[in-house]
Structures are given as C-alpha cells and as structure tokens.
Amino acid sequence: MSNLSINNLEYSYNGKPILKDLSLQVKDNEIVCLLGASGCGKTTTLKAIAGLLKPSKGDISIAQVAVNGDSLYVPPQERNIGMMFQDYALFPHLTVEQNIAFGLHKESSSVRNERVKEMLSLIKLEAFAERYPHQLSGGQQQRVAIARALAYKPSLLLLDEPFSNIDHQVRFQLIDDIRRIIKDQQVSAIFVTHSKEEAFAFADKLAIMEEGKIAQLGTAEALYRKPATKGVAAFLSAGIFIDAEAKSSTEFKTEFGTITSLEPVTNDQDEVSGKGCIYLKPQYLTLSENEQGVGEFVASRFVGNRYLCRVKLGQQELEIPCTQHQRYAYGQRLAIDVRPHLVNYFAYTNNN
Ligand SMILES: Nc1ncnc2c1ncn2[C@@H]1O[C@H](COP(=O)(O)OP(=O)(O)OP(=O)(O)O)[C@@H](O)[C@H]1O
C-alpha cells in the first residue's frame, strides 16, 4: 500500500517552473531517496510534502489522508510528518531527553517518559539523556534528531541531507544505525542527498529527478542495469555516450566494432532498431596497444586498489581500469575491446 502518493504536482518560484507534473508513490515502510542534479527541485519536493509551500497543482496524500489537492491544503503541523532537515538543528538549550520529548507535549507525562526512554534505548544514548547538544558528537546529534523526529510516531519521515555534516569515517556506520532505527519503527521515509554512495547504503529505492519530475523510480540495481533515460544513466555511473546502430536487439554497430548485449534490449517491450546511442561504462572495456586503435592515451593514475588509464575517444575522455603493467606513452594509439554486457541503448527520437 502507498504511504505517500503524489500525483501531477506543479510548483514555480517567481514564475519559473520547478516541479512539473511530478508523481511519486512510496510504499509502507519503504525508504526512498530523491537524487538529482543540484537545483532540480529535491528540497522543493520535500517542502511540498511537508506543507511548507503550497503547490499550484496536484494531489498529495499521506497514509491515505489527502493533504493537498484542488482547494485543499493541510498545514504542516497537521500532516503527522517527522522532519530531519539540515537547518532543523536540535534545540541548544534543551537536553537530549527534552529535545526528544519536544513533540510529545500533548501526551501524558507517563506516556512521554516511556516514549523518551524507548527512543533513547533505540538510539543507544541512554547514558547521554542529561547532556546538551554541544556536548555530543555530530553523529550523536543526528541520532537524537532522528529520535526527536520519530518520537511522536509520524506516518512519514522527511530527511534532507541528514548526513552531510558527518565525518566520512563514521558516516556509513551512522547510515546503518539510522536505517535500522527507521526500519525498527516501521515508518516510510523520503531522503534527499547529493551522494550516490549514501543513497545506495540508506534507501530501498531511488527516485531520480530530472526536469522537475521523477525520471525513474526503482532499486539502485534495477536503475543501474536499465536506466530509463540518458540522464539517469549518466547520473548513476561514469561513462560516455557513443553513436550506435541497432542491427538486432543484441547487436549494435559502433566505431568500436559490433557490441553485443547479453540480454535483448527492448523499448517499451518492443525490440529496438535503427539509430541511437549506447552508454559505454568503463568496467566493460579493455585496452591494448594498436596503431589503428580508436583511443589515444592521456594519463594513468593509481586509485588505491587499481589503476585507471585516461583515454581520449574523439572529443570525449574516459577512465578505463587497467593494470600496473599497462604503461603507455602520451598520445599512443590504443584499441578498445568492449566485452559483451547488458547494453544501455537509447534510440534517437526527434527530441534527442
Ligand atoms: N525561495 C526561493 N526563491 C526562489 N527560487 C528558489 C527558492 N528556493 C529554491 N529556488 C530555486 O528552485 C530550484 C530548486 O531548488 P531546490 O532547493 O528544490 O533544489 P535541490 O534539487 O534541492 O538543489 P540542491 O541539490 O542544490 O540542494 C533552484 O533553481 C533554486 O534556485
């Protein structure tokens, strides 16, 4: 069942459309990550869900309750949403337990105390109940912030860049902890980040935003395997687009020779044909010396566990995995062999 349902949402800032016919469904107990280029409208979407701005068009319902629609607007405090925004810091003058209890003022003191105790145990900060935020690390503060957001049992949790101020070394432990806490509380969540690694580690599904709408929603693996648009492909992994002609649904003629797809490439269930482009990912490529090769060596670098060769292909450059023994001279011609893989092919239309 959908916990959050957004249909055909529109919103403009000063006449400039930001959300354009945006639709998104989030199921019960699901964590969905909104990803997309800077300025594409991720925070605007969260604000519209929270009721912090009024969309000009579209419907939103949370836990099957309509909160936005034609002549309907439910204010934020009545939406039963927990928020953890970057700029919604903890109250500095309140202790950890007072911060967690903040949203529970309507409850009796026994319910409030019980819930605060439960949340402190969930975030494993029982011993820190009396401390003030400035006496906690960044990660501990975020755990208190999530406890505060979850304390009054919201139907939906909205998180805007919750890990961006956390040191890289502890960030992924914190992501694991907060994911466990959210799953434990069986609440749905929408999460905004700039980091694909965070999204992969934290979310059940990714929703990639492009041009004011959701270009694709699915698991990271599904989107990576079959990106619906060129934008989704380029956003999720490094690569280059090369012209290709579909000879069949598994054979594509390119300047690198014929590239074979391990599975038939389909377009809305129909087999593809005609001209288009392939999104070429470096992990499927092998370099070798060849005076007639299509590539030209630029540089190589060591990245911890492997080497990468930067190679010029026409006007584009690509970093291709190589071994420490593959040493080339600047400008040397290289052949590029493309191993069979699940090809990401995009047919050319009048629009691209
Ligand atoms: N209060 C505002 N007034 C006018 N324009 C705004 C306002 N807030 C945001 N915008 C514009 O709306 C667009 C979307 O902003 P939004 O903050 O939703 O993007 P975002 O995807 O969250 O970006 P980022 O990844 O950089 O945080 C941007 O072009 C931004 O400049």
TrEMBL record:
Keywords: ATP-binding, Cell membrane, Ion transport, Iron, Iron transport, Membrane, Nucleotide-binding, Transport. SMART domains: AAA. Gene3D superfamilies: P-loop containing nucleotide triphosphate hydrolases. InterPro entries: AAA+_ATPase, ABC_SmlMolc_Importer, ABC_transporter-like_ATP-bd, ABC_transporter-like_CS, ABC_transpr_FbpC, P-loop_NTPase. Residues 4-236 form the ABC transporter domain. CDD domains: ABC_Carb_Solutes_like (cd03259). PROSITE patterns: ABC_TRANSPORTER_1, ABC_TRANSPORTER_2. GO terms for molecular function: ATP binding. Pfam families: ABC_tran. Coiled coil: none annotated. This is ABC transporter ATP-binding protein. It comes from Pseudoalteromonas spongiae. The lineage of its organism: Bacteria, Pseudomonadati, Pseudomonadota, Gammaproteobacteria, Alteromonadales.
